[in-house]
C-alpha cells in the first residue's frame, strides 16, 4: 500500500510538472516478447502507469494477430472458454469487467455462461486498443525474437529478431505462453516429417486436405483433444476419431450450482496427506467439484509448502487425476463430445503408444492397451499430437529458449517444469543468480507456482509485474528529484 502511494505521488507530480529534459533522455525500454493474454495485459497495466514516465514499451509478437495467443485466436465458433464468464475478468481489481464488457457489446452477459473463445479474443483486443490510446510510447513489433544478448554488466540487452532487426532494452519479459508439445514417442523422425503427422495442434492448416471419411488419431485426451474433436465436427468430418492416452481419462464437465468446500486451517504438506484429505472432503461435500474449487485459490501456497520430493511424488502419481478434475470443460462442450462418442465415431483408447509405420495408404499405429500384454494396431490417415504443452526445458524446441539455456541465462526448475524464477518472476541463471534484466510471466513459471496458465492467475501476475518493472524508473526519478532540490 505504501508503495502504491509513492508510485501515485511521483507519477502525479510528473504529469503536473513539465519536464524539459524528457525528450533528450533516452527512455527506459521494456520489451515484452509475446502478445497473448499475458503480454497484452502486462502492456495494458504498464501503459496505464507509464503516462508521464520516460518509458518506451515494445510489444513483440510473431503471430499475425496481437492480443489473441493460442487460446483466443481460434477460428472455430464451437471452442468455448472452460471458465464461466464471471471468473474471466482480465483485471484483478474489477471482477465484473468481462461480464460488463459483454453487456456493453449487447452479448449474453450471464456470469455462469461459457463464452466462445473468439469473443474473449475480441475482449482482449479492446484492452490492447485501450493501451495504445493510453500511452503513445507503446510500440507493436511483428516478428519472432530469437535471442536476447545482455551487455557485460547485465544492465541492458540486445533483443534480436528472426528478420535480422534488433533493439536495445533495459528489461525483457518473456510472455511466450505454452510451448509446443514434445514428440509423443522417441525415434520415428521420418514419420514426424510426414504431412500425415501434426506436432503443432494449433496449426491453422491442421486438417486441410483431409478426406472427411478418413480416420484420425488424436494422441492425448486432454483439453487439446476436445478442441480438435470440435474442429472436426465443425468441418463436417464423418470418419472415425481415435483418442489414445495412457489412462484413457477424459476431461470432466463443470456442474452447477457452484460452491467451495471449506478447508481445514492446517493443510497437509505431503502428496499422501492431500490424497487422504481430498477423499475425506469429497465424502463430506455435496459435490467433489466444490472441493477442487475450494483448493484452487490455495494451489500456489500448497505447492510451495511441498518439499521437492513431495512435488515429484505429486507429479508422478496424482497429476493426471488432478488435471481431469481441475481442468473442466463447459457442459455444452461435454455434451457435444458425448454425442460424437455415442454415435460410435469417437473411440477413447487407454494404452501405451509403441510405434508409427507410414505406408502408402496411411499410418499404422501400434499400441499396447492398458493392463494387457498384447499389441494392437490402428490404421489412420492423420495423427495429431494432443499431448499438451511441453515444459521440460531439455525437450523444448523453441529457438529462443534453447539459446538462453545455452548462454546460461536460464535454468530448468528442479521439478522439471518450466524455468527457475524468483517470486517476482525474475529468471534465475545457471549459477543461481536472479536476473535484473530478464523476467517471465505465465506458464514458464509452472515449476515454482504449479498453477500459472489460466486467466485467474495470469491477470494478477501481469498487474504485479508491471509495477515491479517500473521501480527502477521511479527510483531514478526520485533520486534526480532529490538532487534537483539539493542543487
Ligand atoms: C486452447 C486453450 C484454451 C484455453 N482456455 C482457457 C479458458 O477458457 N480460460 C482460462 O482461464 N485459460 C484458458 N487457457 C489457458 C491460457 O493458457 C491462458 O488463458 C492464456 O491465453 C495464456 O496466455 P499467455 O500470454 O501466457 O500465452 P499465449 O496467449 O499463448 O501467448 C503467447 C504469445 O507469445 C508469442 N510468442 C511465443 N514465442 C515468441 C517469440 N519468440 N517471439 C515473439 N512472439 C512469441 C506467441 O505467438 C503467442 O501469441 C486456454 C489455453 C489454451 C491453449
Automatic annotation (TrEMBL):
Domain of life: Bacteria
Matching InterPro entries: FAD/NAD-bd_sf, HpyO/CreE_NAD-binding, L-asp_N-monooxygenase_NS-form
One Pfam entry name: NAD_binding_9
Record keywords: Membrane, Transmembrane, Transmembrane helix
Transmembrane segments: 27-46
Polar residues biased stretches: 1-16
Region entry Disordered, spans: 1-22
Residues annotated as domain FAD-dependent urate hydroxylase HpyO/Asp monooxygenase CreE-like FAD/NAD(P)-binding: 31-178
UniProt protein name: FAD dependent oxidoreductase
Species this chain originates from: Gloeobacter kilaueensis (strain ATCC BAA-2537 / CCAP 1431/1 / ULC 316 / JS1)
